[in-house]
Amino acid sequence: MSGRTDSVTGPAEAEEAERTEPVIRHEEDAEFYDEARRARWLATGTGALLTLAGAAAALLRLTGPAPALVPAAYATGAAVCAAAALLGARGRTRRALWLLIAGTMIMALGDQFD
Fold first, then answer.
1. Would you give the DSSP letter of residue 114?
2. I need a labelling partner for 63 at 20 to 30 A (CA). Which of 1, 7, 48, 69 fits?
3. Residues 6 or more apart from 97 whose CB is under 8 A from it?
4. Diameter of the chain by CA atoms?
5. In sequence order, what are the residues at sequence separation of 6 or more whose Cβ sits closer than 8 angstroms to the Cβ of residue 77?
6. 6 and 60 in contact (C-beta within 8 Å)?
7. Which tens digit of pLDDT belongs to each residue from 78-105?
8. What pLDDT, in 10s, does the model give residues 32-67?
9. How many whole angstroms from its chain centre is CA 114?
10. CA distances in angstroms from 84 to 67, 73, 74, 91, 108, listed in the order given
């Protein structure tokens, strides 16, 4: 006697356990793929939004009396966020997150020069 609580006692119960186990794995796999899909969409959407915001800020600062370093920093941050959006779309969400953080920090640094 093994003492395990998940052991089965008869052949009918063994067949039942074999039938239900793949369903649970399939549900876990589906949950994992749904989470991964959401992470890809989130990284892509956030990267695109920050890219547009950085490009718009660079254009606005370019037309104003700000030093040339300010629009360059915004444009560089927007480019980094665009790369993050591309990586996020390809499934590299962890790297995309770090690039989003770096791009936002570059844009914030450009704002400090103003």
1. -
2. 48
3. 43, 84
4. 84
5. 50, 54, 103, 104, 105, 106, 107, 110
6. no
7. 999 999 999 999 989 999 999 999 999 9
8. 788 888 999 999 999 999 999 999 999 999 998 889
9. 31
10. 27, 16, 15, 11, 17
